[in-house]
Amino acid sequence: MGKVQGKYHLRVFQHAQDMPPRSFPAPNNFVLQGSLKSAPQGFANLGPAGESSLLNLRIALPSSNIAGLEKALLDVSNPSSSNHGNHLSRAQVKAFVAPTDEAAAAVNTWLASHGLGAKTVSHAGDWLSVSLNVSQANDMMAAKYENFQHIASGKIYARTLSFSLPAKVANFVAHVHPTISFNNPVGPVLSTPKPVSADDLPTPCSPACLQSLYEIPIIPATEKTNSIAVPGFLGEFANAADLTTFLKMYRPDMPSNATFTTQLLDGGSNPQNGTEAGREANLDIQYTVGLATGVPVSFVSIGADQPDGLHGFLDVINILSGEDDVPQVMTTSYLEDEEGMIAADLAFKLCEAYMAFGARGTSMLFGSGDAGVAGNGAFTCTTFLTTVPSGCPYVTSVSSTGGISPETASSFSGGGFSTLWGTPDYQADAVAAYLTLQGSANAGLFNTTGRGYPDVSAQGNDVPIIVDGQLGFIGGTSASTPTFASVIALLNDQLIAAGKPPLGFLNPWLYANPGMLNDVTSGSNPGCNTDGFAASTGWDPVTGLGTPNFPRMKAAAGL
């Protein structure tokens, strides 16, 4: 059996003796770390990569005490714990996440033996970066780097279908990237906002609609230590002029100068030319600034060429984790397919980074996906597909609803059961109840012992946004996530004003208080030539526990 790293992980293969048989034998004195039979769907093999081509490797070292960090996170996040809300400091988290001196020394000695030196690229020291050519990488890792073209975008990446490490260092490396991970460079698929006339307006749920439906307060927040971080990826830029237009149209009660700040990572930028305004970035900014009245919002723009292999997901979390003051809420509307694209070890390191960030007191919310049970919709599927980061048990996954009275599940809402992480204790009863109700439906198409997602939901159909000065409408869990995040930010404002800590990692609190949410019991999320899952009473893998009810959530938070 594979080693279990933390009680929520299913099969985390840390060393070769834990791994199932592979089709790529490792050479003598090398330990196989991972392999694929072929590249994922959508990629074409162009042949060997040029030996002199430059690779920028990221090397992950195992953290010294992830089990201890998980225990600490759950302790401060469990509403019945006497330690609830006592979030950890940067130094406390670093002590859990940092690698052992033995691991760091072994890896650096190995690199030095090849004339290479690494630099540390995470505040805890568990990630190293080193530049080398393809020939060196092939030699050091018994690899065979080839060029693979992503057919839809035309982008070309150097990857290997297997890699191994010398036995003397293998136990001290959690993962190396780029090796066997194939990330989708196209990113999330969003509908295109189009100008509409007054005669053609759909029936959208604008900020006023959301405030009424979920009883979200419009009184401005007062606590400036409370904030929301909105990461932007894949060349998506947030436009301040579009935000002003949006607020004049939908929040005329707010100050005319209400805006956001910008933080740049990995060579990111945020140009303000209207033609470069991003649908995703504008959506996230307009529905945080426009709903979390008065809460400071920061747009964190990540450059287009991130070396972390996860669109910048790892970089943004590692950099923000290294700061003394962290945002109380982070909302992200981007995702990746769990199966076939991201190596399991890379996904685990990402999830551990979220664990660490949650322990600092940040609530992390991610869209669950817009292709039903087909994950990100990038693959042809015969079994249900799932998404990262939603499958990580240390984040809160948000799906979409439509309709007002009553709300119903949006058919595109991503949801299901992770193939990488097991069912966490905080949702075990809720998942078991749903599976009993599910019976034999969809048998064999999903992992019955996996972490179930989404956790919650919010409106996400025909949401109005402004892009390059024009009104358009957009749908997706990308719209639902900033809405739920804004609710949490406003609750945090009131908690901080009352001298209490922010909510932090939400899931234990959410599952302990399901009655504070509006249960959504109709709709489904079809995909993979099936009807998918059906919404039901209680938690379900379509709408989670339900949509926000601010007064009931406020009471559950002890306000």
UniProtKB/TrEMBL annotation:
One of the protein's GO biological processes: proteolysis
Cofactor: Ca(2+)
Domain Peptidase S53: 204-559
Pfam families in the cross-refs: Pro-kuma_activ
Cellular-component GO terms for this entry: extracellular region
Cofactor binding description: Binds 1 Ca(2+) ion per subunit.
Keywords: Calcium, Hydrolase, Metal-binding, Protease, Serine protease, Zymogen
Active site, renumbered: E280 (charge relay system), D284 (charge relay system), S478 (charge relay system)
GO terms of molecular function: metal ion binding; serine-type endopeptidase activity; tripeptidyl-peptidase activity
Calcium keyword on record: yes
Annotated positions binding Ca(2+): D519, V520, G538, D540
Location in or out of the cell: Secreted, Extracellular space
Domain of life of the source: Eukaryota
InterPro entries registered for this protein in UniProt: Peptidase_S8/S53_dom_sf, S53_propep, Sedolisin_dom, Tripeptidyl-peptidase_I
PANTHER family the UniProt entry points to: PROTEASE S8 TRIPEPTIDYL PEPTIDASE I CLN2, TRIPEPTIDYL-PEPTIDASE 1
Protein name according to UniProt: Subtilisin-like protein
UniProt source species: Mycena alexandri
